């Protein structure tokens, strides 16, 4: 059953039985057979096979989160069954914005379970971390979802983080266009994955900004807005992560867009015994993030 569920998850992520087969080491026909066994077991269709690519059925959309949870628990059981005196090391690339809360919470769980494990955190932008994964310099990366994920990589989304407007506390307007006229715009670096999302949003809506400053790190942008140097559009969890809000936070409303934070690994790293535990720990930490955003009225579904 677990193997069938893993195949189901791979097919759901790839939207292709043949690509899923490459990821799990099965032929396309073997993938189809495993999916058929699940469909017989659950008495429902899991995929719409009418188009060139397969797509999840409504029933499968409901079952996929449960399948992920079951497989994660199974992998956690395998890891827990091993010696609690497990040593070794793991190299984790992480964008700066996840290191404090999201990764910090996950590492607390990891060190509690495996106190002898040595963890090396390698900071960087998403593109740089991807390059380090390909060069075998790190085991996994916690990054913004890349535009293209090759069949050599495994990706799991753990958090969809909304972008929003931040402005100085003394600002008076509530609409984005008015705020942009009132203040200089502090950009999230357009060469970064997240910065490109902001730039594309502004271009789609044909919003011209009064260029001011540009930074690699959203956390630095927040500090500049606190100083009254301008306004910006940033991922909102970074703002909520502070002990006290020193900027105005405004929703983008129905035009809100998101960045997907997740775990990227090369297929060769998936056998690392710590990988399943870290996946589970990061998923649990992301639930706390989403709850805080929801309570603040900044999470839209």
Structure description:
With 301 residues, the chain is of the alpha/beta class. It folds into three domains: 2-78, Winged helix-like DNA-binding domain superfamily/Winged helix DNA-binding domain (Arc Repressor Mutant, subunit A), CATH 1.10.10; 83-158 and 261-295, D-Maltodextrin-Binding Protein, domain 2; 161-258, D-Maltodextrin-Binding Protein, domain 2 (3-Layer(aba) Sandwich), CATH 3.40.190.10. 46% of the residues lie in helices and 21% in strands. It is built from twelve helices and eleven strands. The protein has helices at 2-14, 17-24, 28-42, 58-81, 96-99, 102-113, 126-134, 176-182, 193-204, 218-226, 236-240, 275-295, and strands at 47-48, 55-56, 89-94, 118-123, 140-144, 153-167, 185-188, 211-215, 232-235, 248-251, 258-266. The strands form three sheets. Strands 3, 4, 5, 6, 9, 10 and 11 form a seven-stranded mixed beta sheet that branches. It has a two-stranded antiparallel ribbon with strand order 1-2. A hairpin with a 6-residue loop joins β1 and β2 (55-56). α1 (2-14) packs across α2 (17-24), α1 crosses α3 (28-42) and α2 (17-24) packs across α3. The radius of gyration is 21 Å and the shape is globular. The relative contact order is 0.14. The model has no long low-confidence stretch (mean pLDDT 85).
